[in-house]
Amino acid sequence: MDPDIGMYGVLLLSGLLGSLGHCLGMCGPLVMMVGLQLPARGLAAWPYHLLYHGARIAVYALLGAVVGAIGSLLGLGGQLSGLGSVVSLLLGLGVVLLGLGYLGWLPVGRLEGGGDWVSRGMSRALQQGGLLGVVLLGALNGLLPCGLVYSALLVTASTGGPLPAALGMLLFGAGTIPALLVVGLGAGALSAAARQRLSRLAGVLIVLVGGQLLLRGLAGLGVVSHLRLGDVVLW
Questions:
Q1: Phi and psi of 131, rounded to 5°?
Q2: Which domain range does residue 191 map to?
Q3: Is pTM, for the whole model, over 0.70?
Q4: What's the Cα-to-Cα distance from 183 to each of 48, 63, 84, 218, rounded to whole Å?
Q5: Using CA atoms, how far apart are residues 52 and 176, in angstroms rounded to an integer?
Q6: Domain assignment present for 12
Q7: Which of 36, 193, 205, 213 has a CA that sits 20 to 30 A from residue 80's CA?
Q8: Helix H or strand E segment including 7
Protein backbone atom coordinates (compact mmCIF):
# COMPACT_ATOMS: atom_id res chain seq x y z
CA MET A 1 0.00 0.00 0.00
CA ASP A 2 1.31 3.45 -0.91
CA PRO A 3 2.14 5.39 2.27
CA ASP A 4 0.97 8.62 0.58
CA ILE A 5 -2.62 7.32 0.37
CA GLY A 6 -3.25 8.24 4.01
CA MET A 7 -1.89 11.74 3.37
CA TYR A 8 -4.16 12.12 0.34
CA GLY A 9 -7.12 11.12 2.49
CA VAL A 10 -6.22 13.74 5.09
CA LEU A 11 -5.90 16.41 2.39
CA LEU A 12 -9.33 15.56 0.99
CA LEU A 13 -10.90 15.54 4.46
CA SER A 14 -9.20 18.76 5.55
CA GLY A 15 -10.45 20.43 2.36
CA LEU A 16 -13.99 19.29 3.12
CA LEU A 17 -13.91 20.29 6.79
CA GLY A 18 -12.07 23.52 6.06
CA SER A 19 -14.61 24.50 3.41
CA LEU A 20 -17.47 23.90 5.86
CA GLY A 21 -15.66 26.02 8.42
CA HIS A 22 -13.14 28.59 7.26
CA CYS A 23 -13.91 28.78 3.52
CA LEU A 24 -17.62 29.49 3.96
CA GLY A 25 -16.70 32.62 5.88
CA MET A 26 -13.82 33.71 3.66
CA CYS A 27 -14.90 32.63 0.15
CA GLY A 28 -18.62 32.07 0.68
CA PRO A 29 -19.62 35.72 0.10
CA LEU A 30 -17.56 35.80 -3.10
CA VAL A 31 -19.16 32.61 -4.41
CA MET A 32 -22.58 34.00 -3.54
CA MET A 33 -21.79 37.14 -5.54
CA VAL A 34 -21.02 34.97 -8.55
CA GLY A 35 -24.30 33.12 -8.04
CA LEU A 36 -26.24 36.38 -7.81
CA GLN A 37 -24.73 37.75 -11.02
CA LEU A 38 -25.52 34.73 -13.20
CA PRO A 39 -29.34 34.95 -13.14
CA ALA A 40 -29.14 38.67 -13.86
CA ARG A 41 -27.15 37.90 -16.99
CA GLY A 42 -29.48 35.10 -18.04
CA LEU A 43 -26.79 32.41 -17.69
CA ALA A 44 -27.26 28.82 -16.55
CA ALA A 45 -25.73 28.51 -13.07
CA TRP A 46 -24.24 25.00 -12.97
CA PRO A 47 -21.69 25.22 -15.82
CA TYR A 48 -20.37 28.57 -14.64
CA HIS A 49 -19.98 27.46 -11.03
CA LEU A 50 -18.14 24.35 -12.20
CA LEU A 51 -15.85 26.50 -14.37
CA TYR A 52 -15.21 28.78 -11.42
CA HIS A 53 -14.22 25.92 -9.11
CA GLY A 54 -12.34 24.14 -11.88
CA ALA A 55 -10.15 27.21 -12.44
CA ARG A 56 -9.58 27.58 -8.70
CA ILE A 57 -8.54 23.95 -8.28
CA ALA A 58 -6.33 24.07 -11.38
CA VAL A 59 -4.37 26.86 -9.69
CA TYR A 60 -4.09 24.74 -6.53
CA ALA A 61 -2.75 21.84 -8.61
CA LEU A 62 -0.23 24.11 -10.36
CA LEU A 63 0.99 25.45 -7.03
CA GLY A 64 1.20 21.88 -5.76
CA ALA A 65 3.32 20.85 -8.74
CA VAL A 66 5.72 23.72 -8.03
CA VAL A 67 6.17 22.90 -4.34
CA GLY A 68 6.35 19.19 -5.18
CA ALA A 69 9.19 19.86 -7.62
CA ILE A 70 10.99 21.87 -4.94
CA GLY A 71 10.43 19.05 -2.46
CA SER A 72 11.90 16.59 -4.97
CA LEU A 73 15.01 18.76 -5.37
CA LEU A 74 15.40 18.81 -1.59
CA GLY A 75 15.23 15.02 -1.42
CA LEU A 76 11.77 14.60 0.13
CA GLY A 77 10.72 11.63 -2.01
CA GLY A 78 11.11 8.04 -0.81
CA GLN A 79 13.77 7.34 1.81
CA LEU A 80 14.84 10.66 3.29
CA SER A 81 18.42 11.82 2.99
CA GLY A 82 20.01 13.97 5.68
CA LEU A 83 18.89 17.17 3.95
CA GLY A 84 15.46 15.71 3.28
CA SER A 85 15.08 14.85 6.95
CA VAL A 86 15.92 18.40 8.00
CA VAL A 87 13.49 19.83 5.45
CA SER A 88 10.80 17.42 6.65
CA LEU A 89 11.37 18.71 10.18
CA LEU A 90 10.95 22.31 9.01
CA LEU A 91 7.86 21.47 6.96
CA GLY A 92 6.35 19.62 9.89
CA LEU A 93 6.98 22.57 12.18
CA GLY A 94 5.35 24.93 9.66
CA VAL A 95 2.31 22.69 9.27
CA VAL A 96 1.92 22.34 13.05
CA LEU A 97 2.09 26.13 13.50
CA LEU A 98 -0.58 26.65 10.82
CA GLY A 99 -2.75 23.99 12.40
CA LEU A 100 -2.42 25.63 15.81
CA GLY A 101 -3.52 28.84 14.16
CA TYR A 102 -6.69 27.16 12.95
CA LEU A 103 -7.27 25.97 16.49
CA GLY A 104 -7.24 29.65 17.49
CA TRP A 105 -3.92 29.50 19.35
CA LEU A 106 -1.82 31.46 16.84
CA PRO A 107 -2.61 34.54 14.68
CA VAL A 108 -3.07 32.79 11.33
CA GLY A 109 -5.05 35.79 10.10
CA ARG A 110 -1.79 37.72 9.70
CA LEU A 111 -0.66 35.17 7.14
CA GLU A 112 -3.75 35.88 5.09
CA GLY A 113 -3.06 39.56 4.52
CA GLY A 114 -1.22 41.10 1.61
CA GLY A 115 -3.64 39.90 -1.07
CA ASP A 116 -4.82 43.34 -2.15
CA TRP A 117 -3.68 42.86 -5.75
CA VAL A 118 -5.66 39.61 -5.94
CA SER A 119 -8.73 41.34 -4.53
CA ARG A 120 -8.48 44.11 -7.09
CA GLY A 121 -8.19 41.58 -9.91
CA MET A 122 -11.21 39.69 -8.59
CA SER A 123 -13.22 42.90 -8.49
CA ARG A 124 -12.44 43.52 -12.17
CA ALA A 125 -13.31 39.93 -13.05
CA LEU A 126 -16.67 40.30 -11.31
CA GLN A 127 -17.38 43.44 -13.31
CA GLN A 128 -16.43 41.77 -16.57
CA GLY A 129 -18.69 38.74 -16.00
CA GLY A 130 -19.30 36.13 -18.67
CA LEU A 131 -17.26 32.99 -19.27
CA LEU A 132 -13.84 34.66 -19.12
CA GLY A 133 -14.73 36.65 -16.02
CA VAL A 134 -15.86 33.52 -14.16
CA VAL A 135 -12.69 31.61 -15.09
CA LEU A 136 -10.45 34.53 -14.08
CA LEU A 137 -12.34 34.92 -10.82
CA GLY A 138 -11.86 31.26 -9.96
CA ALA A 139 -8.16 31.36 -10.83
CA LEU A 140 -7.59 34.46 -8.71
CA ASN A 141 -9.55 32.87 -5.87
CA GLY A 142 -6.94 30.10 -5.97
CA LEU A 143 -4.25 32.72 -5.32
CA LEU A 144 -5.95 34.34 -2.33
CA PRO A 145 -3.73 34.24 0.80
CA CYS A 146 -5.15 31.41 2.91
CA GLY A 147 -3.58 29.57 5.83
CA LEU A 148 -5.51 26.40 5.01
CA VAL A 149 -4.10 26.36 1.47
CA TYR A 150 -0.61 27.12 2.79
CA SER A 151 -0.77 24.13 5.14
CA ALA A 152 -1.95 21.85 2.31
CA LEU A 153 0.94 23.04 0.12
CA LEU A 154 3.46 22.31 2.86
CA VAL A 155 2.02 18.82 3.23
CA THR A 156 2.15 18.13 -0.52
CA ALA A 157 5.74 19.35 -0.68
CA SER A 158 6.62 16.29 1.38
CA THR A 159 5.41 13.96 -1.41
CA GLY A 160 8.69 14.69 -3.17
CA GLY A 161 7.44 15.11 -6.75
CA PRO A 162 5.34 17.49 -8.89
CA LEU A 163 2.71 14.94 -9.96
CA PRO A 164 1.99 13.48 -6.49
CA ALA A 165 1.87 17.01 -5.05
CA ALA A 166 -0.46 18.22 -7.81
CA LEU A 167 -2.72 15.24 -7.13
CA GLY A 168 -2.73 16.07 -3.42
CA MET A 169 -3.80 19.66 -4.11
CA LEU A 170 -6.45 18.45 -6.57
CA LEU A 171 -7.92 16.27 -3.82
CA PHE A 172 -7.72 19.10 -1.31
CA GLY A 173 -9.49 21.42 -3.76
CA ALA A 174 -12.11 18.80 -4.59
CA GLY A 175 -12.92 18.57 -0.89
CA THR A 176 -13.73 22.29 -0.81
CA ILE A 177 -16.24 22.13 -3.68
CA PRO A 178 -19.44 20.72 -2.07
CA ALA A 179 -19.95 23.39 0.58
CA LEU A 180 -19.03 26.30 -1.69
CA LEU A 181 -21.15 24.93 -4.52
CA VAL A 182 -24.17 24.70 -2.22
CA VAL A 183 -23.61 28.30 -1.08
CA GLY A 184 -23.12 29.51 -4.64
CA LEU A 185 -26.37 27.89 -5.73
CA GLY A 186 -28.22 29.69 -2.94
CA ALA A 187 -28.93 26.91 -0.43
CA GLY A 188 -27.51 28.82 2.53
CA ALA A 189 -24.63 28.15 4.93
CA LEU A 190 -23.86 26.82 8.37
CA SER A 191 -24.00 28.97 11.48
CA ALA A 192 -20.88 30.84 12.58
CA ALA A 193 -20.51 28.57 15.64
CA ALA A 194 -20.67 25.41 13.51
CA ARG A 195 -18.13 26.84 11.07
CA GLN A 196 -15.75 27.60 13.94
CA ARG A 197 -15.99 24.04 15.27
CA LEU A 198 -15.29 22.56 11.84
CA SER A 199 -12.34 24.92 11.33
CA ARG A 200 -10.87 23.68 14.59
CA LEU A 201 -11.39 20.05 13.55
CA ALA A 202 -9.53 20.81 10.32
CA GLY A 203 -6.82 22.36 12.50
CA VAL A 204 -6.50 19.13 14.49
CA LEU A 205 -6.01 17.16 11.26
CA ILE A 206 -3.37 19.62 10.08
CA VAL A 207 -1.49 19.39 13.40
CA LEU A 208 -1.53 15.58 13.18
CA VAL A 209 -0.06 15.63 9.67
CA GLY A 210 2.54 18.16 10.78
CA GLY A 211 3.47 15.89 13.68
CA GLN A 212 3.87 13.00 11.25
CA LEU A 213 6.25 15.07 9.11
CA LEU A 214 8.23 16.05 12.21
CA LEU A 215 8.55 12.41 13.28
CA ARG A 216 9.45 11.40 9.72
CA GLY A 217 12.32 13.89 9.78
CA LEU A 218 13.48 12.73 13.21
CA ALA A 219 13.37 9.10 12.07
CA GLY A 220 15.42 9.98 8.99
CA LEU A 221 18.05 11.52 11.29
CA GLY A 222 17.99 8.44 13.54
CA VAL A 223 16.61 10.31 16.56
CA VAL A 224 13.49 8.10 16.75
CA SER A 225 12.62 4.77 15.15
CA HIS A 226 10.46 4.43 12.04
CA LEU A 227 6.92 3.23 12.70
CA ARG A 228 5.25 0.87 10.27
CA LEU A 229 1.75 -0.58 10.07
CA GLY A 230 2.19 -3.46 7.65
CA ASP A 231 3.42 -1.99 4.38
CA VAL A 232 2.56 1.57 5.44
CA VAL A 233 5.38 3.71 6.89
CA LEU A 234 3.71 6.17 9.27
CA TRP A 235 7.01 7.98 9.76
A1: -60, -50
A2: 18-220
A3: yes
A4: 14, 25, 41, 43
A5: 13
A6: no
A7: 205
A8: helix 4-18
